[in-house]
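Lab notebook, design round three. We kept the backbone fixed and only want residue identities now. Task for the bench partner: fill in a sequence for the structure below.
Input structure tokens:
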């Protein structure tokens, strides 16, 4: 398997006060890596900031070695990481919520914290909830399961419809159901003394807590009181444990005690709400003992790891042993089998619906199905995160302390692959792997060593070749981030995007509408790698829905269709004159308050700027296609959906200009009698008749636009990420090596054109020039899109507030980054 990149953490001290250098890591559904570093850290002055605001510590500030720190980074910009928090307590648990929005931290001492990014900014984190279990050590934590799941089956990659390709997990139930069976949010904790703690996140306070601003915290930290319950009849000292949700909604927990090394105890923990509905309900925990695993003679071995997971609807526990005298380690797989046990005739009795004797009773037992000897001590175990249909599409990754990774096949535990990283040597200072985790689609394995240095390796399922398209569609259906899939298919994106678009257009209309936002976000990331403009279509779609939401029919009783539907019907007649179309419409249906129209002027300007740039570049794009004989995978001037949306918006702008002339777009013209809206609508109507092959007269008229008025130059955002044309060339060249907090020059875009306002920052959401050095902005960490911080304060009208509310997340799916 290919080693993709390594990030050297030179800022982390090589000394540690802890007897063992422990680094925890976890990857979220949005491909954000969280890791804890238990060493002291010293950062350069260029990354200064207050330690409490989520940024990195200031220049020359050596944080005390007794502190533990939590950082996050994106897998497409792994050299840039951001601080979440610091604590004097030792972090023992690091866990993401299922949607990747919340980060749970568990400490030695019993404190649990849940952090969230403020305003979806990856470099600004705030504490929202905390709970305390006094005098206990948190050793395992799990967020409540929401009861949703999608089965990944590579055998169905040739099916057309998403409903056939991706089956929902029907038997899966939520961990805790509220009123109406709705899944509740919360966490379950397990302490080292065998004490269970659970708490649910209050929905009302959760909503108010999300309303922080960039200027200061607008929320209060909520203290939660957990419900407590002993997992067994008596308390015990738990050394190793594992927790996973089961289809029934309960949590399956396996653990081993310090004085009972030959016994792995298994429990089923279920949660429920007790109390009358409408009154205050409290959480109740129920723990039931299940079939346990009784191991044979250990011969000096000690259990080092436990991992309970589900593979193809089967419960599986992986048990790792540390062999004595440094003789490596052993890994065993145990599977829960269910059998029908025959019952003696004297004990059968009458039972069942028809009073027939019970001849069989179901029994459960754990069976060892595989075993493998490893040459080095085991650092961590990772299992494919996809809900696979058969064990053939699942793999086990054994991360060893000799800086190597072995890929094993479930059940047989046969070695499929072995990858050796930097070998241990005296000059390496004893750096060894300590933890690792897979990305949501299980395409990349991310590993941390004892100095918190990050390694990324390709980890595709070896038996599912050619399923890149299926994985991208899986990400569209589940909402997971697809950056890891794109990074491993950079050389094949052109064919993938063509098949992806073709398959998406074949889906039923209701399916396309439901997944349209996920599809646009994924396609924008693909087109960005190919240096093609796709973000304009996403913004155009958002503006179109916002403008149409302002329309109200003048007479509700006599209209079967809304104003937007009537407009689409009129435009289907291909009338080239915008005023003629306007006369055939009822102007009352398009009446909007003049004050509201004034607030939308910048968005109206953006629409006409897009149409103007698209038509201006059309002759050049046609000439490029003829010379190269190859069409780009996406061109907005050939997209009939985008052209139709522009024509609809131009008619609405024309009508609104009669209500308030201040909302019309402004241009510098060579002659005063030029009507920009009329010209744009006429040219777009002719282009809509044959977007694939525009006629020569249309191209001639488009080439004259630059002589009639000054055409504004579009703003380009060129961030430095691995998901770019430069990133494709770098990944193709071989293993990459980055230094933390240093932007690699090999990925920077050096071919940025010098245009008007090139040194100015433009807000991509409100279409405003912010100047050369704006004080506070938010920039997308992946696509570079800019959004002002105080947008919600500036918005005075309901239309503008609705517009800004669409941008809680960036359109590409990335987090915002606060820039000062």
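Proposed sequence:
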């Amino acid at each position: 398997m290919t080693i993709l990149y390594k990030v050297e953490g030179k800022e982390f001290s090589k000394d540690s006060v802890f007897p063992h250098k422990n680094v925890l890591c976890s990857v979220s559904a949005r491909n954000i890596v969280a890791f804890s570093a238990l060493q002291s850290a010293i950062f350069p002055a260029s990354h200064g900031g207050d330690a409490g605001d989520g940024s990195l510590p200031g220049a020359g500030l050596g944080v005390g070695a007794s502190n533990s720190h939590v950082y996050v980074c994106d897998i497409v910009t792994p050299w840039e990481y951001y601080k979440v928090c610091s604590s004097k307590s030792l972090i023992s648990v690091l866990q993401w919520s299922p949607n990747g929005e919340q980060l749970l931290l568990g400490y030695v001492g019993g404190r649990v914290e849940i952090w969230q990014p403020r305003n979806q900014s990856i470099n600004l984190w705030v504490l929202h909830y905390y709970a305390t279990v006094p005098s206990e050590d948190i050793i395992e934590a799990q967020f409540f399961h929401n009861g949703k799941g999608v089965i990944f089956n590579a055998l169905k990659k040739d099916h057309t419809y998403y409903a056939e390709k991706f089956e929902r997990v029907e038997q899966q139930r939520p961990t805790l159901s509220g009123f109406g069976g709705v899944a509740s949010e919360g966490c379950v904790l397990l302490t080292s003394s065998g004490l269970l703690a659970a708490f649910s996140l209050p929905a009302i306070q959760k909503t108010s807590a999300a309303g922080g601003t960039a200027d200061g915290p607008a929320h209060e930290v909520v203290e939660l009181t957990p419900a407590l319950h002993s997992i067994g009849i008596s308390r015990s000292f738990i050394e190793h444990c594992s927790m996973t949700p089961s289809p029934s909604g309960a949590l399956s927990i396996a653990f081993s005690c310090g004085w009972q090394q030959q016994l792995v105890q298994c429990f089923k923990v279920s949660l429920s709400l007790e109390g009358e509905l409408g009154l205050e309900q409290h959480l109740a925990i129920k723990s039931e003992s299940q079939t346990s695993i009784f191991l044979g003679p250990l011969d000096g071995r000690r259990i080092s790891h436990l991992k309970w997971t589900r593979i193809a609807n089967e419960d599986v526990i992986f048990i790792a042993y540390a062999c004595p005298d440094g003789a490596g380690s052993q890994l065993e797989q145990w599977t829960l089998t269910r059998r029908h046990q025959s019952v003696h005739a004297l004990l059968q009795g009458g039972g069942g619906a028809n009073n027939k004797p019970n001849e069989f009773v179901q029994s459960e037992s754990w069976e060892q199905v595989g075993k493998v000897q490893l040459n080095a001590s085991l650092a961590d175990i990772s299992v494919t995160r996809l809900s696979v249909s058969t064990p053939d599409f699942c793999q086990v990754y054994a991360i060893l302390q000799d800086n190597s990774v072995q890929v094993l096949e479930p059940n047989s535990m046969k070695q499929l692959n072995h990858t050796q990283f930097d070998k241990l040597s005296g000059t390496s200072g004893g750096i060894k792997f300590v933890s690792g985790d897979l990305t949501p689609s299980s395409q990349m394995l991310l590993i941390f060593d004892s100095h918190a240095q990050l390694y990324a390796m390709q980890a595709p399922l070896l038996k599912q070749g050619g399923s890149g398209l299926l994985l991208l569609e899986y990400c569209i259906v589940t909402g997971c981030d697809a950056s890891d899939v794109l990074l491993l298919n950079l050389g094949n994106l052109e064919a993938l995007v063509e098949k992806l678009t073709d398959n998406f257009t074949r889906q039923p209309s209701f399916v396309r509408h439901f997944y349209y936002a996920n599809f646009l976000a994924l396609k924008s990331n693909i087109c960005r790698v190919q240096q093609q403009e796709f973000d304009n279509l996403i913004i155009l779609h958002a503006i179109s829905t916002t403008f149409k939401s302002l329309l109200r029919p003048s007479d509700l009783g006599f209209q079967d269709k809304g104003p937007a539907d009537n407009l689409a019907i009129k435009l289907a007649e291909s009338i080239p004159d915008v005023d003629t179309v306007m006369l055939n419409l009822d102007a009352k249906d398009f009446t909007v308050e003049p004050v509201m129209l004034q607030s939308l002027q910048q968005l109206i300007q953006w629409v006409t700027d897009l149409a103007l740039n698209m038509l201006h570049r059309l002759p050049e794009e046609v000439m490029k296609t003829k010379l190269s004989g190859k069409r780009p995978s996406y061109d907005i001037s050939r997209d009939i959906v985008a052209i139709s949306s522009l024509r609809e918006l131009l008619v609405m702008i024309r009508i609104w200009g009669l209500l308030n002339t201040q909302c019309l777009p402004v241009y510098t013209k060579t002659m005063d009698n030029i009507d920009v809206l009329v010209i744009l609508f006429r040219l777009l109507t002719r282009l809509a008749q044959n977007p694939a092959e525009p006629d020569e007269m249309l191209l001639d008229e488009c080439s004259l636009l630059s002589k009639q008025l000054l055409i504004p130059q579009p703003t380009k955002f060129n961030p430095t990420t691995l998901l770019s044309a430069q990133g494709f060339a770098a990944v193709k060249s071989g293993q990459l090596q980055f230094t933390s907090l240093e932007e690699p020059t090999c990925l920077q875009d050096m071919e940025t054109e010098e245009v008007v306002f090139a040194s100015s920052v433009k807000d991509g959401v409100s279409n405003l020039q912010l100047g050369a050095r704006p004080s506070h902005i938010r920039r997308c960490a992946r696509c570079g899109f800019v959004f002002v911080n105080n947008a919600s304060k500036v918005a005075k009208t309901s239309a503008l507030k609705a517009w800004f509310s669409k941008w809680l997340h960036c359109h590409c799916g990335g987090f915002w980054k606060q820039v000062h």
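Keep this in mind before ordering anything: The mean pLDDT is 84.
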